[in-house]
Amino acid sequence: MDSNLSKLPHKRLATLDISRMVCIILVVIGHYDPSNAPLQYNNMLKVIYTFHMPVFLFISGYLYIVTHKEESFTAFITKKIKRLAIPYLVTSAIIITIKLLTQGAARVDHPVTALSYLRMFYLPEAGYFLWFIIALFVMFLIVFHFKSRTSRLALFAVSFIISFLPSCGIDILCLRQCQEMMIYFMTGVVIADYAPNLFKLNTGITLIILLLFAGCEAYYVQHQDSMLMYRLLAFLGIAAIMTLSYNCERFVPLLARSCVLLAPSVYIIYLFHTTIEGFAKAFLEKYPILDIFSLQAIIIIGLAFIIPILLHHLVLKRFTTTRFLFGL
Questions:
Q1: For 122-154, how does the pLDDT look when each residue is reduced to its tens digit (9 = 90+)?
Q2: What sign has the CA pseudo-torsion 15, 29, 287, 94?
Q3: d(CA 30, CA 277)
Q4: Distance between CA atoms of 265 and 59, rounded to whole angstroms?
Q5: Domains of the chain, residue spans
Q6: What distance in Å separates the CA atoms of residue 132 and residue 30, rounded to the nearest whole number?
Q7: What burial class does residue 294 get, using C-beta atoms within 10 Å of its C-beta: 0-12 exposed, 13-18 middle, 19+ buried?
Q8: Integer angstrom CA distances of residue 77 from 59, 88, 137, 211
Q9: Residue 110 backbone zone (phi > 0: left; psi -120 to 50: alpha; other: beta)
Q10: d(CA 233, CA 205)
Q11: Is pTM, for the whole model, over 0.85?
């Protein structure tokens, strides 16, 4: 392992937990996109989609270096299969089964067929949001073979170049998404390699970054004029979330402790939030008790965030089988 990693302060991981919690909240919000949403909400979704997944990929790349240890490829891939692939397949099978049982009686986003049980092995068949897990798995397989900081820097440069090339158009194993998004994963890798404390900035610089990010986002919402601006917003979003999280860790210790406690549930939230949103939307459509958009949004988003946390702590992590099936 590179020597600079041994100097990385342990408390730095609390900053990452805060960032992960911010991102998963944005993911849950971003996947609630009803047709009756007001313009302001739709504009908020446009903003969220410019940076929330790049931040997740950045954190994944950063943590790969921070936690990396010398091991065989077999040992490494086994860990990733247990942590990513098995939970992905189990969740996909659950979601596909639920859709097959309900799509005849209720409106289902992204309908499936029996063939979906096969297609889920190479496509995010159960729901498009699962592209992230497949793509992340592929990225780990690639980066493992780049053992030195110099080689990983070269991979970062290659990732940057191919992200601007025309899309490869290959959906199998989410290679199209890998082409577009691996640059953010590799940014986390390179930052951890060369400047692990880069985002340890004071509140003044953080405020400047946040203001610049907000200004660029306001411009983007109105114009959405170029891929270059989209890329810029992704990197500004990474900088904004990371520096803001660091300062929250410094000045709001209760928030930091809460995020550290909740962060282990992030993967479970990601796997199940869309299913819970779907059930909640179907219920409110059938029984419009609260036919006000803002109240419906709060209820649906809140349930999609809270129920997976309860499921994780009260059920999944308590039994050996469920811990294995969901990578816990």
A1: 999 998 999 999 999 999 999 999 999 999 999
A2: negative
A3: 11
A4: 16
A5: 3-325
A6: 14
A7: exposed
A8: 19, 15, 9, 41
A9: left
A10: 17
A11: yes
